[in-house]
From TrEMBL:
Protein name as it appears in the record: Diacylglycerol O-acyltransferase
Keyword hit for Secreted: no
EC number of the protein: 2.3.1.20
O-acyltransferase WSD1 C-terminal domain sequence ranges: 292-436
GO molecular function: diacylglycerol O-acyltransferase activity
Length: 443
């Protein structure tokens, strides 16, 4: 049985997890149905197809060998049974209500850490599938690839295969070592300097930013989800009117929605500027570790205290430009890169502490998950909506994930159900903020 050692960041995600803070990604896809039995048929298809997707057969096993003490590996589960992972539920009128309860439950660590929950609609005209993938098994891009493996086949352009470099023996590398040493030393010093720079940036980021108490909470272990759909044409109208990128507009919408939501709660927004972590993928095609998480991030203050919607957008745009100029390897948002400098046993022992420290790093996660532009189907049923769902860090009560699919932007919202019982009001605030930006651009 072959095995693949977890990359440092994957190992960190594996060890940060607790019962109240499961580290799985989610995606709630809604499909149009041709008949009331469409959901049951979809569950059968998912179970049948999962057996043929190698990545879905991978479990994660802890390793206590001398050279990898405290590490973990991905390996094929010899007892893999798709029926342990695909579940058909009773019909429901509220997909998000069921998804929230299912997102509470950690994945079983002794099996391949993923699940697919099929939720038939009470009206018989739709069904939903909630996919859950542990962050140590897959990042957003790989989770998309694994999910695509059990959906209906689509014709995608094929990449030309990369030429495989012949293996080299040890002796040539030994002979080259003297010439490589200066570069290796420079690399170590550079890594150390970068780590110090990231640490200093993190310390600076704690000053002058005041989050709302609504974004921090004692963990209850409960979850609530909601979704918002926005027309991408409206986003482009705002972008073309005031400049910046689509992502700038989508982040500014979150800032404005937070302001509206907090004011409706009767909370003051004066001076409120929660730190938003914007994950940045560092994955490159055909890398040596295609399954490993390669993430960094940008850290920006969300201008919740700014009353002018265009002023909020300008602040977000300026902060994103500053982050991009520095690059994803610098700044407080790049703390994830420090995982590469921690030995496996350090991740094992320090994982819970690192998880608790997340609230010192950022206040809310705002992440984008790419989706293909072409239509996806399951059993011939068209995917009409798809809401990405992000994990909650300890001490945080709200996370926002965003995907664009077939001309519409989908905001997937995950919250601690006890800390944010009014998540639907925040969802309405997201919709209202788009209208506010459009009106401000037309004024």
């Amino acid at each position: 049985m072959t095995s693949d050692l977890l990359a440092p960041l994957d190992l960190a995600f594996w060890n940060i997890e607790s019962d109240r803070h499961p580290m799985h990604l989610g995606a709630l896809g809604v499909f149009g149905a041709h008949s009331p039995t469409a959901g049951a048929h979809a569950a059968d298809l998912l179970a049948a197809r999962a057996a043929a997707v190698p990545g879905l057969r991978l479990r994660i096993r802890d390793v206590w060998q001398p050279l990898a003490f405290g590490a973990a590996v991905r390996e094929t589960d010899p007892d893999f049974d798709p029926l342990n992972h695909v579940r058909l539920h009773a019909p429901t009128a509220d997909f998000h209500a069921v998804a929230g309860r299912l997102m509470e439950r950690p994945l079983e660590r002794g099996r391949p850490p993923w699940e697919a929950h099929v939720l038939p609609g009470e009206d018989g005209m739709s069904f939903a599938v909630l996919f859950k993938f542990h962050h140590a098994l897959a990042d957003g891009l790989r989770a998309l690839k694994l999910a695509a493996g059990v959906l209906d086949p689509v014709d995608l352009p094929q990449r030309a295969p990369r030429a495989i470099e012949p293996p080299r023996g040890l002796l040539p590398d030994v002979r080259r070592l003297p010439g490589l040493l200066p570069g290796l030393v420079r690399g170590v010093l550079s890594d150390a300097g970068r780590a110090l720079d990231i640490g200093a940036s993190l310390a600076r980021s704690t000053f002058g930013m005041r989050p709302s108490s609504a974004l921090t909470s004692s963990p209850s272990g409960t979850r609530r989800t909601a979704g918002v759909v926005v027309d991408i044409d409206d986003v482009h109208r705002v972008r073309k009117s005031v400049g910046g990128t689509v992502n700038d507009v989508l982040i500014a919408v979150v800032a404005g929605a937070l302001r509206r939501w907090l004011e409706e709660r009767g909370e003051s927004t004066k001076g409120v500027a929660p730190r938003a972590l914007i994950p940045v993928s560092r994955r490159r095609p055909r890398t040596a570790h295609p399954q490993g998480n390669r993430l960094s991030g940008y850290l920006i203050p969300l201008p919740v205290g700014e009353p002018d919607p265009l002023g909020r957008l300008d602040t977000v745009r300026t902060a994103m430009i500053r982050n991009k100029d520095a690059g994803p390897n610098r700044g407080a948002g790049a703390v994830a890169l420090l995982a590469d400098h921690v030995p496996a046993l350090g991740h094992r022992l320090g994982g819970p502490l690192v998880g608790q420290a997340a609230r010192l790093w950022f206040d809310i996660l705002v992440t984008s998950v790419p989706l293909p532009g072409l239509g996806l189907r399951l059993g011939g049923h068209e995917l009409t909506e798809v809401y990405p769902l992000a994990p909650l860090a300890p001490g945080q009560s709200l996370a926002v994930a965003i995907s664009t699919y077939r001309g519409r932007v989908h905001y997937g919202l995950v919250a601690d159900a006890q800390a944010v019982p009014d998540l639907d009001r925040f969802a309405h605030a997201v919709s209202a903020e788009i209208e506010t930006l459009l009106s401000a651009c037309e004024a």
